[in-house]
Amino acid sequence: MIHAYIGLGSNLDTPMAQLDRAIDTLQKHDDVKNLRVSSIYGSKPVGPQDQPDYVNAVASFQTDLPPLALLDLLQSIEQAQRRVRERHWGPRTLDLDLLLYGQETIQLPRLTVPHPYMLERGFVIKPLSDLAPDTLLNNGNTVIEQLQQLDTSDLVIIKEE
């Protein structure tokens, strides 16, 4: 079994309900064990600012799914919740990103792990620190050390873990 971490985000169509449905779907999936979810945070959008604020969280779980099968599962959950992709870094009903897949480094046309932008995003690193503060990242920092290098002043806890 591999320990996976995913980022969850939404800013359209009742964002908290979007995250709750995605978490519920993951929890009921046969290939997802020991699901844990961080606190849920509100944050300003990355990219275009003419969109609603986001809600974000990180989930961790054990799985025996290979990386692309896990990506397929995440994308099927997004599609089931009518994922909207209007523009790059634009608003979305649900975004599920595979952040970490064990300690593996993956470079495939459809998937890059660790997630290529996670180290610079407080809305990812802060909830990841709720679950795995001492995890070593690919840049040599622990999650908590990486968090100390980021501006997280726009993050607001919406729901405690």
TrEMBL record:
Belongs to the HPPK family. It comes from the Bacteria. Its EC number is 2.7.6.3. Pathway: Cofactor biosynthesis; tetrahydrofolate biosynthesis; 2-amino-4-hydroxy-6-hydroxymethyl-7,8-dihydropteridine diphosphate from 7,8-dihydroneopterin triphosphate: step 4/4. Residues 88-99 form the 7,8-dihydro-6-hydroxymethylpterin-pyrophosphokinase domain. The lineage of its organism: Bacteria, Pseudomonadati, Pseudomonadota, Gammaproteobacteria, Oceanospirillales. GO terms for molecular function: 2-amino-4-hydroxy-6-hydroxymethyldihydropteridine diphosphokinase activity; ATP binding; kinase activity. InterPro entries: Hppk, Hppk_sf. Pfam families: HPPK. NCBIfam families: folK. Catalyzes the transfer of pyrophosphate from adenosine triphosphate (ATP) to 6-hydroxymethyl-7,8-dihydropterin, an enzymatic step in folate biosynthesis pathway. This is 2-amino-4-hydroxy-6-hydroxymethyldihydropteridine pyrophosphokinase. It comes from Marinomonas hwangdonensis. GO terms for biological process: folic acid biosynthetic process; tetrahydrofolate biosynthetic process. Keywords: ATP-binding, Folate biosynthesis, Kinase, Nucleotide-binding, Transferase. It is an enzyme of class 2 (transferase).
